[in-house]
Amino acid sequence: MLKVFSHYFPSHTLQQILFDAFLLFVAVLVAVVMQLNTEMVQWYTVVPSALSFALLMVILNSAMGLYRPLASESHKNALTRVLLSIVVSIPVAYGIFGLLPWEGVASEAMQVSVLLLLGFVLSMRGLVNRRRASSLFAPRVLIIGTGTDAVAVQRALTHPVQSGMEIVGFFSPSGEDAIEVDARKVLGRGERLLDVVRKNRVNEIIVALRERRGGVLPLHELLDCKLSGVQVIDLSSFFERVQGQVRVDSLRASWLIYGDGFRQGVGRTIVKRCFDLAAATLLLVLTFPIMLVTALFILIEDGAPIFYRQERVGFGGRVFRVIKFRSMRTDAEKDGKPRWASSNDDRATRVGRVIRKLRIDELPQLFNVFVGDMSLVGPRPERPYFVDQLAKEIPFYAVRHCVKPGVTGWAQVRYQYGSSVDDAIQKLQYDLYYVKNHTLVLDTLVLFETVRVVLTGEGAH
Q1: Where do the Bacterial sugar transferase domain residues begin and end (predicted)?
Q2: Which of 2, 172, 332, 372 is most buried, judging by how many CB atoms fall within 10 Å of its CB?
Q3: Contact (Cβ atoms closer than 8 angstroms) between residue 25 and residue 46
Q4: β strands within 363-424, DSSP E
C-alpha cells in the first residue's frame, strides 16, 4: 500500500495504472510514426503530449472504478463497468485531442487508431480485474495472533482488492490458546519470532492482538523485527490502510489524540469551502434541467410539496434543515415516529423510487452547500432522534460531527444503504476514516466514485 495525500492506494493497482499508461503512451508514439516519417516528427511536442494523454485516460478510468478488482461481481456488472469506462473515455479523449498541440500530426486516422486501442485496453483491464490481481513486489505478510482478529485480518487480505499481499502464515505467541485459523498455517511453534520472520522472508507483520502491554504480545521480539527492517503495524492502522475505515472495536481515545490525522485547521477549512462553492455551482448548472423535470414529475404523480425539509445534525452537533426532493408519500410518518429509510421502502412513490435509485433526490442539497450547512463530501447527516440513539450505543459516534456533513461521502460510496444500528457502525468506521484523512484528493475521488455508483446502479448510498 502506498500513501498519497493521506489516502492509501494498493500498490498492485498503481502498477496496473502505470502499465496501461505506458501502453497507451507507446501506442500514440507508434501511431504518429506510422503516419509520418521519423524525421518529420517533432518529438519535443509529441512525447509530452502522448504522456499527458495516457496519464489522463488512466486517471479518469481509475476514478471511475475500472481498476477495482471485484472477483465476485457478475458478468453483467463487469460488462457495465467496462462499457461505462469506454462511453466516458472516448468523448474525453476526443476533447483532449483537440487541446493537444498536434497540428499536422493528429490526423483522423491516427485518432481512430488510438481510440480503438484505448477501448481494447479498457476492455482487457475490466476482464483481467475479475481475476485475482498480483503484484510484482507483493509484500510477504505474517499475522501475529490466531484468534478472531487474525481471522478478520486474513479475510481482509484475501479480498480481491487486497490480493496483491501474500499471507505467509500466522504466529501464535506464548499465552494465546485460542486457534481459530487453519492450524496448518501456524508457523514457528516454540521458535523466536525473528527466526520465523527471517526463515520465511517476511516483509511485514500485522499484530492481530488486542493486548498491547505485556500479556501475550511479544513486544521485545516485535522491536527486534522492526529494527531489522520489517514493518510492524497494529489492528487500527491495518484496517485504516487496507479497508479505508477506522475500526470502532479496535479504537482507543489515545489513538485519536496522539495519532496522525484529524487535523481541522483554518487553511484546510477555507480550501474546502472554496472547492465546495466552485463544484456546487458547476453541478447546479449541469443538473438544473434534471431538477426541473423531477419537480414536474413529482407534481404530476403526487402533487405538492415538491421538496422535503427535515432536521438533521450537522457540524458541531448543530441542527439544520436539509432540503431534498420528496420521494415518499406525504403521510410517510403520520404517527410521528421516526423510522429508518430502507433501499426498498414501501413508503416511496413511483417517482420517488426512481430518483432515490439515481440519487436525484439529493440534488437540492446543493443549496445547503451554498448556505454553508453542508459540504459536497462528508459524513451523511442523520436526524437528531437517531443521533441521540446512536451516540449512546456506538463509541466515538460524535467524532463525525467535527466536519460538515456531505451530499455524498466516503461511507456512501463504500457501503450499501444502511437501515440499522449495525449498518450505522459500519458507516461510522468509514466516516472516521474520512474525518481523519480528508483532503481535496479524497473529496475528488469520492465525487468520481459517486458518479460511478449512480451510473452503474450499485447499492451504495
Answers
A1: 272-455
A2: 172
A3: no
A4: 375-377, 406-408
In b/e form, how buried is each residue of 5-38, taking b as 16+ CB within 10 angstroms? eebbbbbbbbbbbeebbebbbebbbebbeebbee
Distances (CA, A) of 240 to 107, 208, 217, 232, 395: 48, 14, 21, 14, 17
pLDDT digits (tens, 9 = 90+) for 67-125: 765 545 556 666 777 777 788 888 888 787 777 766 656 667 777 777 787 887 777 77
Using the predicted structure, report yes or no on whether residue 158 has a pLDDT greater than 90: no
Q: Looking only at Cα atoms, what is the longest distance across the chain?
A: 80
Any idea which fold 140-243 has?
Answer: Rossmann fold (3.40.50)
CA 267, chain centre distance (Å): 24
Contact 280, 376 (CB under 8 A): yes
Query: pTM for the full model?
Result: 0.78
Supply the mean pLDDT for the chain.
Answer: 80
Q: What is the pLDDT of residues 123-141, one digit of tens each?
A: 777 666 655 555 556 788 9
Question: Helix/strand/coil (H, E, C) string of 200-240?
Answer: CCCCEEEECCCCCCCCCCCHHHHHHHHHCCCEEECHHHHHH
- Residue reference for cell 469506454: 86
Measured on CA atoms in the order 67, 137, 23, 58, is the torsion positive or negative? positive
* Distance separating alpha carbons of residues 241 and 111, to the nearest angstrom: 40
Q: Please give the C-alpha separations between residue 73 and each of 80, 81, 122, 130, 154, in angstroms, as whole numbers.
A: 11, 10, 17, 7, 20
At which residue does the C-alpha cell 483537440 appear? 98
